[in-house]
């Protein structure tokens, strides 16, 4: 692994991307060209401290998943993606390693501007397969760092069924409900995509990974996610009661998801504490 060259490469790529290109607001106080380090970390779903270490040629060797997220966040072309993996000591990625090589879909223009402006509330941009495209600082503060990217690693829905450990973010008694609405929403997505054989295969593969998903999938229940109330278990602030709202694009393949406190609960105070933590 060529740590120094890897750091220099990331720094130059970061400098060429304007915040507006990835749905972030650019103000007159910006002192550096392109994205800031914390913005790259946010888009890549990793900690700012670790990204800084990478740019400085320090820290542990990044995983292929981290490299994939960085390639997506920095909008690498295939040659840049190959070079990045080579610098980190990996073989060049292929479509099987990086689905949709070399990067996840760009944020739809109709959502990009809104995402950049909703800085006072936790906000995500995801696909209809629950692949994370972007998350703002408050979303990270509320939900923790999540990997961006394509199915399977970048999809919260896939990880929900394949990696049960991530379920700690919700109370255990709510898990069955979350499983049901995720499965229902994925079936709605498959129908919206005209029963695309490639997407259907992803669902079949997930059935082999998770018996729970297989049972829910074969029930053929279908429902698109809209607005819903849920409880989030936060490591510092306890259970936070939120409303989750979804604004889809016209074709339904992407959606803006944002969270607001449930009136009459402690969530207003908890949201204020979250804002203070990222100020």
TrEMBL record:
PANTHER family: BLL4672 PROTEIN (PTHR35010:SF2), BLL4672 PROTEIN-RELATED (PTHR35010). It comes from Actinoallomurus bryophytorum. Transmembrane segments: none annotated. SUPFAM superfamilies: lambda repressor-like DNA-binding domains. PROSITE patterns: HTH_CROC1. InterPro entries: Cro/C1-type_HTH (IPR001387), Lambda_DNA-bd_dom_sf (IPR010982), MLTR_LBD (IPR041413). Residues 34-81 form the HTH cro/C1-type domain. GO terms for molecular function: DNA binding. This is Helix-turn-helix protein.
């Amino acid at each position: 692994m060529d740590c120094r060259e890897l750091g220099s490469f990331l720094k130059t790529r970061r400098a060429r991307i304007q915040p507006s290109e990835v749905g972030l607001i650019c103000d007159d106080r910006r002192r550096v060209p392109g994205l800031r380090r914390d913005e790259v970390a946010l888009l890549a779903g990793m900690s700012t401290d670790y990204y800084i270490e990478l740019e400085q040629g320090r820290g542990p060797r990044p995983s292929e998943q981290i490299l994939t997220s960085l390639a997506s966040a920095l909008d690498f072309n295939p040659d840049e993606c190959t070079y990045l993996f080579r610098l980190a000591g990996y073989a060049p990625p292929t479509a099987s390693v990086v689905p949709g090589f070399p990067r996840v879909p760009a944020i739809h223009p109709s959502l990009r501007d809104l995402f950049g402006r909703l800085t006072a509330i936790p906000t995500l941009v995801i696909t209809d397969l629950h692949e994370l495209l972007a998350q703002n600082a408050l979303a990270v503060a509320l939900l923790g760092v999540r990997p961006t990217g394509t199915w399977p690693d970048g999809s919260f829905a896939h990880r929900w069924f394949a990696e049960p450990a991530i379920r700690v973010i919700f109370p255990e008694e709510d898990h069955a409900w979350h499983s049901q609405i995720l499965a229902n929403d994925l079936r709605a997505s498959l129908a919206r995509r005209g029963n695309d054989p490639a997407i259907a295969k992803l669902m079949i593969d997930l059935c082999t990974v998770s018996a729970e998903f297989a049972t829910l999938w074969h029930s053929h229940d279908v429902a698109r996610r809209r607005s819903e109330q849920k409880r989030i278990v936060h490591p510092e602030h306890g259970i936070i009661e939120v409303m989750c709202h979804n604004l889809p694009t016209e074709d339904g393949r992407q959606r803006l998801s944002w969270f607001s406190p449930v009136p009459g609960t402690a969530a207003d105070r908890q949201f204020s504490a979250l804002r203070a933590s990222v100020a």
